[in-house]
Design brief:
This protein has 444 residues and is mainly β. It has 2 domains: 1-108, no CATH class; 125-443, Porin, CATH 2.40.160. Helices cover 8% and strands 53% of the residues. The chain has 4 helices and 24 strands. It has an 18-stranded antiparallel barrel. Strand 21 and strand 22 (394-404) form a beta hairpin.
Length: 444
């Protein structure tokens, strides 16, 4: 079992203490949900039941005064599919990551100092950026990639422990954020179907990740100026924050197997950019741009790392190069159809001073489509999300359909998967991860 709160948020501690200080003036509200979900991996021969999970979520909101509030959200999940399929068929790492899970999501206290100054202290979301499918400006919150991002796009952002200072008035706001918790992306287990280094492990040895400690030296800093007008919104930001996905760094050669040894490492990077939207009737033009300075990129192992071993000492072998990275999105949304929303995004990235040594291409492009519609007076909703990676010819998709029996009970089905990736592309080895799932969610 994994307890996913390595650094307990200070906000949770304040949440517990504050009601004791002013119990007579505190108002509490409770909400949450229970979810039962069954998933089938219909492409797998080894196992069919990809998920038989039970999830409980509890949210507590406390109001100590008109200017002081707090939030605490817990969530626990147990997946019985591993017991049904046979726990001995899975690695301990897979069981630790997927079978049982308990986490503290949001846990913060929020204080309005006066009419123009607010402080939020604890584990929280920021929600920057305009893209529905790509992490461009939304660099403050890491991602849950235990299923390679095939979950509902609304559920993959992870909160972090931080202090957020906001100065605002009716048409603008400035945020200065200190990120105390060095939280990184949650990745799939080694050897699992969602192992992010699945193909790479066939050729090299990969050590356990060197994750950053949550200390003063690793504190991230985020800064944003937001402005709103009748024509839309725009934000400018600058940040120094850990990259959520690790870089594989060469560490040596295993003496017994002669395999190359790599270790995932995380780098704290500087970035800046802007994002926003323009609104005209039922149309919305949205944009998102970020420039990351001196971002490390892996080099090709066979072509460039191996030859260096013949001429260079182990500690001089170069396994990455630092290059500036530009990434941007231009998209449109249309809501003029009855009960329907359509979103189309074009996303491109560019590595400055690209060399042939790099494993990534100089340009990477993809097209993202999102369509949602409600039926039967809003009781039935359906959505399609698809990313087409142009260079890899890969399609990553998810379809969701739900029926609201009443205000508290919702039935749902979902289909997700990865199709069409060409040989040698990153997603080529994930062509059998398609899943079909059904479930029920009861809210309270």
């Amino acid at each position: 079992m994994i307890f996913r709160s390595k650094n307990f948020s200070v906000g949770a501690l304040l949440f517990v203490i504050a009601p004791l200080v002013s119990a007579d003036d505190t108002a509490l509200s409770y909400s949450g949900f229970l979810v039962e979900e069954v998933g089938n991996s219909y492409q797998h021969e080894e196992f069919k039941w990809s998920k038989i999970s039970s999830t409980a979520n509890l949210n507590v909101d406390a109001y100590f005064s008109s200017s002081w509030s707090a939030k605490l959200n817990f969530q626990g999940t147990y997946d019985a599919a591993y017991k049904l399929e046979g726990r001995g068929e899975f690695s301990q790492d897979t069981l630790d990551i997927y079978e049982k899970d308990f986490r503290i999501n949001e846990a913060y206290t929020d204080i309005d100092i006066n009419s123009w100054l607010n402080v939020r202290f604890g584990r929280q979301f920021f929600g920057w950026g305009e893209s529905n499918s790509e992490q461009i400006s939304d660099i403050g919150n890491p991602r849950d990639l235990r299923e390679l991002g095939l979950q509902n796009v609304k559920d993959i952002r992870l909160p972090v422990g931080a202090t957020k200072l906001t100065v605002y008035n009716a048409s603008w706001e400035y945020n200065l954020i200190a990120v105390h918790e060095a939280r990184v992306d949650e990745l799939g287990a080694e050897g699992s179907e969602f192992d992010p280094f699945l193909a790479f492990r066939e050729r090299v040895m990969i050590l356990s990740a060197d994750e950053p400690d949550s200390d003063l030296d690793n504190t991230g800093v985020l800064s944003r100026l937001y402005m709103s007008n009748d024509w839309g919104d725009i934000s400018f930001f600058a940040a120094r924050q850990f990259e959520g996905f690790p870089l594989l760094v060469f560490k040596g050669v295993n003496a017994s197997t002669q395999q190359l040894v790599f270790q995932p490492e995380y780098n704290q990077l500087n970035s800046y950019g802007f994002f926003g939207n323009l609104i005209e009737g039922s149309w919305q033009l949205k944009y998102d741009f970020a420039r990351t300075l001196n971002m490390p990129h892996d080099v090709k192992v066979v072509e460039y790392v191996v030859p260096q071993l013949q001429t260079e000492p182990i500690d001089s072998v170069i396994s990455f190069q630092e290059k500036n990275l530009d990434k941007g999105m231009l998209g449109i949304e249309y809501s003029g159809f009855s009960d329907t929303q359509v979103s189309l995004e074009y996303i491109a990235s560019y590595i400055e001073d690209h060399t042939e040594m790099l494993r990534e291409g100089k340009y990477e492009r993809k097209i993202s489509t999102y369509i949602s519609r409600t039926f039967s007076n809003g009781n039935i909703s359906a959505s399609l999300w698809m990313n087409h990676l142009i260079s890899d010819n890969a399609n990553i998709f998810r379809v969701d359909v739900s029926y609201s029996y009443d205000d508290d009970v919702k039935f749902f089905i979902a289909l997700s998967g990865i199709e069409g990736a060409k040989k040698g592309a990153y997603y080529y080895d994930y062509d059998e991860v398609d899943r079909f799932s059904v479930g029920v969610k009861v809210s309270f």
